[in-house]
Specification:
The complex is a heterodimer of chains A (176) and B (282). Chain A is of the alpha/beta class. In chain A, 26% of the residues lie in helices and 20% in strands. The longest helix of chain A has 15 residues. The N and C termini of chain A lie far apart (40 Å). Chain B has 282 residues and is mainly alpha-helical. Chain B has a single domain, classed as Ferritin. Chain B is built from twelve helices and no strands. In chain B, α3 packs across α10 and α7 crosses α9. The two termini of chain B are 35 Å apart. The chains are: A alpha/beta (176), B mainly alpha (282).
Chain lengths: 176, 282
Amino acid sequence: MSAATLPDTEEVWRWLSEVPDPEIPVITITELGIIRDVDYEGDTLVVTVTPTYSGCPATSMINLQIEEKLREKGVEKIRLKRQLSPAWTTDWIAEEAREKLRAYGIAPPIDGTAAQGGNDVLKGRIARMTGENLTVPCPRCGSADTTRVSQFGSTPCKAAYQCRDCLEPFDYFKCI
Amino acid sequence: MAPSLSDIMTPDAAELARAAGKGASAPLEMGSREHDLFVGLTRLGDNTLILGHRVSEWCGHAPVLEEDIALANMALDMIGQTQLWLGLAGEIEGRGRSADDLAFLRDAWHFYNFLLVERPNRDFGHTLMRQFLFDAWHQPMLKALEDSSDARIVEIAQKAGKEVAYHIERSADLVIRLGDGTEESHARMQDALERLWPYTGEMFLGDEIDARLADSGVMPAPESLRGAWDETVNAVLDEATLKRPEGDFAHKGGRQGRHTEHMGHLLCSMQWLQRAYPGAKW
């Protein structure tokens, strides 16, 4: 591919928006908000990716999928750059992706409810127990009468919940 | 004469790196800025690595499925943080050692974690009590590291801090529920607290490396985290109806590479594959 035929970055963004998240295939990696930048360094395409959680095992799979997609589109010189800061937040998950999560059976994150920890750990605990700052509606029946089973669900980014009305167990995408 | 200890037969990671021409051959000079930073970062990474490994031992053994999954995911967070800390440590060292090399090819005396995190799991309550005592230190530590003079440390601390906020929420919650639970769970939590207590003091004992790192604004002095830890621990133990032990005797040495008998057994299980098949990949 000569410099004259290098795809423009908007085109690359479109290609990347075809790459599904390996854990939650109904949403794409661009909707997840983990692609931070697409740019050229000379004729090398540099894609900047930020991890969701430090230990997320999907990270290396995502990098592989990005590379595969770009190779498939004919890009030869690719560099994937890891960027930690600013740290990924669920606030970056696109609005339409939240609906897709819900339809898939995962309650989407409720912004502004991330754990604070620290000396507020007791206050946060009481708030969560009473549902004062966090009511997670059931993605299946919509009932607000749900209960947290565990702070950590099927992946570190989710918590396990159960609906008291329809009894459906479900994952909640934790706010971080 | 052939070496008598099998681990001497295992190629040393630094030796392998040297052979591959990956980095400098000379070890860092003791007391140099780089050596201090390497040790400081290794201490952070070794804490999360060893505790992460301990917690992962529960995989498939927890009392209920949900807790099994939760423990495995907590372990995953800690191993992820380890990759960041040890990755940076290897970069600073400049001898071509990756986070994996540091995790799998060092021996006990080159690990600098707290003795607390190498304590065996015992029962579920003991595991959560150990986690809570660690989390109550970990969170203010990361908070302080967000103000480090080293931008690379700030980035990792911010990332890890968001995860650890969930760790402490979970461990504090379970300490309270089990402490203020049945007669049996209360007794077990009090017992766990008393067994682990002598291992908590080490978290706040600084040495000359800590002093130099604190002077240059890279990492906080360990002593400075005591207040925040005491406040969280007292509040949670109170809520859990558990009695804070009185003694302040502290077992120490882990941060200088002097470990308890449990460390070798842990490494034996964690490292055996790389020791038996050096360089194995999948």
